Amino acid sequence: MSEASSAGSGARPVTIDQLIALNEEIVALVRSGSPLERGLVKAGEDLPGRLGAVTKILADRMGRGEDLVSALEAEKDAIPPLYRAVVEAGSRTGDLASALQGLTRYLRGYSETRAAIGLALWYPLLVVTLAYGLFIGVVTQLVPRFREAFEQFDLPATRALSFVERVGELAPYWWPIWPIMLCWMAFAWWRSGRAVQFSESGWTFLSFFPWMRPMLKDHQSAGFAELLALLLENKVAYPEAVSLAAEATGSTPLINEAHALSKNLEQGRPAGEALRGAPGPAFSPLLRWVLTSDQQQGSIVEALRNLAPMYRKRAAYRAEKLRLFLPSIVMILVGASATLLYALTLFLPLTGMLSRLAGP
């Protein structure tokens, strides 16, 4: 057995960007008509690091007679199930390159938006970290000086001073909160970039940001519509095509609803009734309308092909909004929070002391 094969189960998971690079290599090989196993061997020699290692492993498995779907399934620890599902569905359509290109657009949109979020966050996080450190210094070093000043002038302590002083006394217990949050965010960020976690569980952290969740749903809807149209064009049975196209999106709610729809269709129920019995509104409204319509197969394919670019344009619009507005939103929130924090910890005790001094 070759070295690549022996390393198969130990291959490290690839990142989203590495998966995009691997996908583009496979698309180029499919379009050129070259044997995949030979092309992947050469690509594995050219690609760096873990991506090259995974590519060589896939080439080795295919050289021993496995098809691409089986090779990807065997390397599921390094490559996400979503990718295998797209390859399987694309193989059924006879147009694997088109299916993989649709996935590339989805992955690239996710990766670019993730990078935009990172650029929007790093400076505010630095500001918050500095403000947090200064806050600790104020409540532990400066506030006790205020207390001494009150005592020297024989003034009773204000409520604000007593509260802030108590916060400073408890600092040994609460100061690790922000470092722990930073570590959690760093872990969540790292996890969101791993291809093997490319699902709702993997990008939960990113879904907290505005426009991110609907943008990903639009990409999933576009991929579903595009792949379902390809499957139906190649005479794949409608219930099976719906399940295959849904699995290629990686969206658990959409997959569950599609499987329920397929099961109801196989039992002979009309399309509208079949989808009404499916769990949850995972399908977007227009997609649901197309799936439940009683049109002929050709008109359904045409409708799906019209929907895919619409969803992609909407996803691109949301991604652009996120890139433009997220930095401003974050900075406003950080600035307002820091200002309020220092007003409470510094100026309230100071104004309280001045008020007591000026009083009778």
Question: Could you explain the architecture of this structure?
Answer:
The chain is mostly helical. The chain has 2 domains: 77 residues, no CATH class; 248 residues, no CATH class. The termini are far apart. The N terminus is likely disordered. Its main location: membrane. It comes from Paludisphaera borealis. It is a multi-pass membrane protein.
Give short descriptive properties of this protein.
2 domains; disordered N terminus; mainly alpha
The ordered string of helix (H) and strand (E) elements is: HHHHHHHHHHHHHHHH
What is the total number of structural domains?
A: 2
Shape: elongated
Number of DSSP helices?
A: 16
Short description:
The chain is 77% helix and 0% strand. By secondary structure, it is mainly alpha-helical.
Give the secondary structure arrangement, pairings included.
Blueprint lengths: L2 H4 L9 H17 L3 H11 L2 H15 L4 H7 L6 H13 L2 H57 L6 H11 L1 H4 L2 H16 L19 H22 L4 H10 L4 H15 L4 H6 L8 H8 L4 H62 L2
